[in-house]
């Protein structure tokens, strides 16, 4: 399996793209603004989008993806998400007000997009790749995803403040190689992080203390303008785990 980071910022700006990860050539984990950097030939190959939660920075490219290449495809684009997330996307996005309902275009029998509900802990297998939703703790229903090639695993937390259920799931993965975990705010905004159910460096260190596995740790979703400060604070409070800042276009083979 190869995972390419096509968006890992907590905001927008020149060179910044919101959360999206391309697994091999045909699967997206979240669909932030980074999807727009793919060309048509790459976009048409995407068969699946696994969504962590309903917030706009993680789903904004799904409507454009369906609209841009849906008619070029022989099968619907499948969006995998929690039932609550699917309900939010139906009600608030694909509602004919913000965007057409592509689950009914050109017809309900032959739509350009379909939804497939996921359940925490229940794996989805796509061409020998196992994608398992793992617990996340955010202000809306959310999951992370464990990606397992058989040879190794990568866990992406999505937006979360952690929690015991997540660490139980992660610590049970015997072939874990990589953890991509969010840290959105500096410690000066710890109260905001707690309110928004995100992490800051001190909270990150508290969460990583639960990790029993040996894995390379990468930090995502940093707020623009705060990246250097956040990473300095992470180095000060969580250096035991040697976390590194996730980079746009970074590749993971596992």
Short synopsis of the structure:
The protein has helices at 40-43, 56-59, 61-69, 83-92, 164-171, 190-196, 201-208, 227-238; strands spanning 2-7, 20-23, 27-29, 48-50, 77-81, 113-117, 124-126, 129-135, 143-148, 153-156, 176-182, 216-220, 244-245, 251-253. It is of the alpha/beta class and 254 residues long.
The number of E-state strands comes to 14
The CATH class label of the largest domain is: Alpha Beta
Order of helices and strands: EEEHEHHEHEEEEEHEHHEHEE
Task: Briefly note the structural class of the backbone.
Answer: alpha/beta
Which fold name fills CATH's third level, the topology of the largest domain?
Metallo-beta-lactamase, Chain A
Proportion of residues in extended strands: 15-25%
User: Whole-number average pLDDT?
Assistant: 98
CATH superfamily of the largest domain: Ribonuclease Z/Hydroxyacylglutathione hydrolase-like
Supply the CATH architecture of the largest domain: 4-Layer Sandwich
Keywords for this entry:
globular, 14 strands, Metallo-beta-lactamase, Chain A, 24% helix, 25% strand, alpha/beta, seven-stranded mixed beta sheet, 8 helices, single chain, 254 residues
Task: Describe the fold and architecture.
- The protein is of the alpha/beta class.
- It has 2 domains: 1-81 and 83-117, Ribonuclease Z/Hydroxyacylglutathione hydrolase-like (Metallo-beta-lactamase, Chain A), CATH 3.60.15; 120-246, Ribonuclease Z/Hydroxyacylglutathione hydrolase-like (Metallo-beta-lactamase, Chain A, 4-Layer Sandwich).
- 24% of the residues lie in helices and 25% in strands.
- The protein has 8 helices and 14 strands.
- The protein has helices at residues 40-43, 56-59, 61-69, 83-92, 164-171, 190-196, 201-208, 227-238, and strands at 2-7, 20-23, 27-29, 48-50, 77-81, 113-117, 124-126, 129-135, 143-148, 153-156, 176-182, 216-220, 244-245, 251-253.
- The strands form 2 sheets. The protein has a 7-stranded mixed sheet. A 7-stranded mixed sheet has the order 7-8-9-10-11-12-13, with helices on one face.
- A hairpin with a 3-residue loop joins strand 2 and strand 3.
- Helix 7 (201-208) packs parallel to helix 8.
- The protein is globular and about 55 Å long.
């Amino acid at each position: 399996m190869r995972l390419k980071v096509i968006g890992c910022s907590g905001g927008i700006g020149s060179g910044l793209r919101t959360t999206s990860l391309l697994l091999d050539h045909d699967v997206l984990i979240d669909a932030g603004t980074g999807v727009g950097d793919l060309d048509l030939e790459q976009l048409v190959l995407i068969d699946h989008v696994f969504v962590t939660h309903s917030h706009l920075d993680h789903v904004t490219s799904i409507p454009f993806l369906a609209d841009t290449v849906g008619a070029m495809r022989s099968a619907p684009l499948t969006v995998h998400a929690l039932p609550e997330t699917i309900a939010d996307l139906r009600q608030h996005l694909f509602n004919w007000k913000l965007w057409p309902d592509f689950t009914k275009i050109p017809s309900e029998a032959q739509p350009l997009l379909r939804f497939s509900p996921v359940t925490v802990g229940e794996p989805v297998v796509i061409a020998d790749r196992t994608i398992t939703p793992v617990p996340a703790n955010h202000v809306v229903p959310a999951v992370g995803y464990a990606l397992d090639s058989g040879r190794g695993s990568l866990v992406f937390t999505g937006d979360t403040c952690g929690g015991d259920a997540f660490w139980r799931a992660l610590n049970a993965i015997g072939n874990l190689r990589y953890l991509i975990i969010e840290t959105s705010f500096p410690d000066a905004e710890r109260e905001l992080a707690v309110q928004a159910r995100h992490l800051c460096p001190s909270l990150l260190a508290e969460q990583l203390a639960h990790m029993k596995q040996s894995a390379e740790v990468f930090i995502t979703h940093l707020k623009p303008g705060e990246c250097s400060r956040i990473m300095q604070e992470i180095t000060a409070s969580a250096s035991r785990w040697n976390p590194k800042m996730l980079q746009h276009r970074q590749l993971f083979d596992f």
